[in-house]
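re the bet — no i am not wrong, look at it urself. input seq straight from the record:
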Amino acid sequence: MSGEVLMEAGEGGVVHVTLRHTGRLNAMSRPMWRQLRTVFEDIQQRSDVRCVLIAGEGDAFCAGGDISEYPGFRFDVAALRDFHENDVWGGLNAMLLCDVPVVAQIRGACMGAGVEIASCCDIRVAGSGARFGAPIAKLGFPMAPREAQLVAGAVGDVTARQMLLEAATFSASDMLARGFLSRVVADDMVATEALGSALRIAALAPQAARMNKQTFRALKMPIALDGKALAAMKNIVNGAPDPYAYADSAEHREGITAFLEKRAPLF
């Protein structure tokens, strides 16, 4: 069995995405990377999804890549390029381009591919026993450039260098202190805490959440001194020419009206 990425609807507009690779601590296989892309491209097109909760099956988030596959392609330049640029980056980029908020529920091993997937999430909740790293130096190869850029942007340059150059691994408390994790709780409370975060997000204005993610994505672009950055920012609101075009939207009005009327908004 080569593993699978499952998608299941939950309560309150939350969709559960599960990484499952039994017996391999949910290590990502090539089919799983492709399924990850398909799942998040589907989520991006659905207006009924308000938040995604991604987790690994059982006691691990994702232990990395499925090394058992590697001899079949890693030693060929074209095949290796295809794996990283199409399979892996296709899955990660679909997550990055998804406007729906994503919460990561992390237990146990979060290594290599697991760190990359977690780096694409907005909120990361981990159990106290979780471990993080990318010890691929022990396998004799570097992290692909775009993947390294992604991880360094999420965990920080110092931590990324330690992970890749020293093959260092870190505890959940380490990663909380380094700003990668949102919260650390007891291992048996991770599912409850992560779901609570997802439900809180899902109860808020979905359009505002998607627009915030579009803004965060745009802000990661290089700053231009000639005004090009401002022009780029104008295209983040569903292709609208003005980033404030939501002013007269129903959600905007409902949010403010409900606050003034001291009631819960109905989005």
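see?? The first strand starts at residue 4 and ends at 9. told u. also Residues 77 and 83 are 10 Å apart (CA to CA). so pay up
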